[in-house]
Amino acid sequence: MISNKIVMAVVFLTVFAAFACAGKVAEDKKAGAAAAAPAVPALAPYNNDFAIKLYRSLAPENGNIFFSPYSITSAFAMTREGAKGPTADEFTQVFGFPAPAKGLAESFEAAAGALEAGKGTAKLTLANSIWPQRGYKFKAEYLSKLKKSYGAQSSVVDFSKDAEAARKEINDWTGKKTEGKIKDLFPPKSLTALTRLVLASAVYFKGTWQHPFEAGMTSDADFFVKAGEPVKVKMMAHPGQKKRLYTADDLASVVDLPYAGGSLSMMAVLPREGKSLAEVEEVLSAKKLADWREAMDLRDVKAFLPRFKFSAKYSLAERLPAMGLKLAFTDAADFSGMDGTQDLYIQKAFHQAFVEVNEEGTEAAAATGVAMGLKSIQMDFELFRADRPFLFLILENKTGLVLFIGRVENPAA
Q1: Domain limits for position 265
Q2: Same-domain pairing of 286 and 393
Q3: CB of 198 closer than 8 Å to CB of 8
Q4: Tens digits of per-residue pLDDT, 354-392?
Q5: Which of 134, 212, 241, 334 is 20 to 30 A from 206, alpha carbon to alpha carbon?
Q6: Are β-strands 242-248 and 297-306 bridged in parallel, bridged antiparallel, or unpaired?
């Protein structure tokens, strides 16, 4: 039970909109910038390890999954900068952050620079913000570090006088940073007169495929949520085979679908025929992801991917204690690095995400011949047909940093 404590709220916003545009994609003019992007080896390992740990905690539940480990680790890294003692130790246990936190801020600073340099023609917004209570004495060095190394915009608000006005102001910020996709992250009365700090991290991505799907080839198709349980989806296709990075093992086939600019790509993981997604999830790890990436080579690939669009919202105040981050949410929390006292604890931690993957243009009604034709010829290429539940990740190629991870269990949901 919380007693004699004032509170923080930590919020994470993720919007991912990948549009495979019909027609010619403009030639990427920033390939050189991507090649010159600075490496961030210190960040990718613990970011990706946390991504898999959180994913595996969500996997037993039914339904689609989508979140940004980068957004979550960014906000909790800002929180970790003020943690001390056993509270800080739990951040290390759950997120893999270094103990002490020397170099933590710099690794995120370098990562943001690498992502900015390597985004190519994509629109990528990485935004952090802090919302301190007016008149509350936070340590100047703490706020300064968040501004310098995390790029956190600081906006003073008055929770004690009007928490609802502060809530609306923060929601307005989230709406602007996510292009209107997430407008009401904090529901009414979710912030109180005892709230003293909100930390927010927003990620917005909109990219076009390096090899666009052909809008005229999109067709109605079955997607098998379970064996014998099809739902109708719009299945996207290419007019021919494309040279793509691809690998396969006994469990899954894995294909790389790059975005224009070449530094960001979608990695789609499809269970082999006769295998279930649960079997793939059982062996999923940061090392397994790295092994798949290492094993990839260029192949001729015919790719089919369903359109999908869904949103997800998670209360991390419920998820993270089960993963080991317990003290931060109790009256035993020690965030004295923020204000010199032990009066703060995390009141709420939300993560909300939106994803849309499609091709812009007219929907086709006469593309059923594509799949039929594939059955009548000798295939001298790899077929990647995502007509059953699959995993997908959005990552930065130079470092392997996972920005987003998700599961498509039902594209029609």
Answers
A1: 214-306+383-408
A2: yes
A3: yes
A4: 888 866 312 211 111 121 122 233 446 688 999 999 999
A5: 241
A6: antiparallel
| Phi and psi, residue 200, nearest 5° | -130, 145
Could you tell me which of 264, 281, 263, 255 has the C-alpha nearest to residue 385?
255
Residue 110 sits in the same domain as residue 174: yes
State the DSSP string of 35-61: HTPPP-TTTHHHHHHHHHHHHHHHTTS
Write out pLDDT tens, residues 114-147.
888 878 777 888 888 998 999 999 999 999 999 9
Burial class (CB in 10 A: 0-12, 13-18, 19+), 187: exposed
* 315 bridge partner residues: 350
Q: Comparing 63-67, 332-336, 379-383, which segment has the lowest mean pLDDT?
A: 379-383
Same domain, residue pair 324 and 399: no
Same domain, 228 and 298: yes
Clarify whether residues 113 and 196 are in a common domain: yes
**CA-to-CA distance for 143 and 351, rounded, in angstroms?**
23
Peptide bond before residue 188 is cis, with ω within 30 degrees of 0: no
DSSP string, 222-268: EEEEETTEEEEEEEEE-SS-EEEEEEE-SSEEEEEEEBTTSSEEEEE
Residue 17 lies in a domain: no
Same domain for 91 and 199, yes or no, is yes
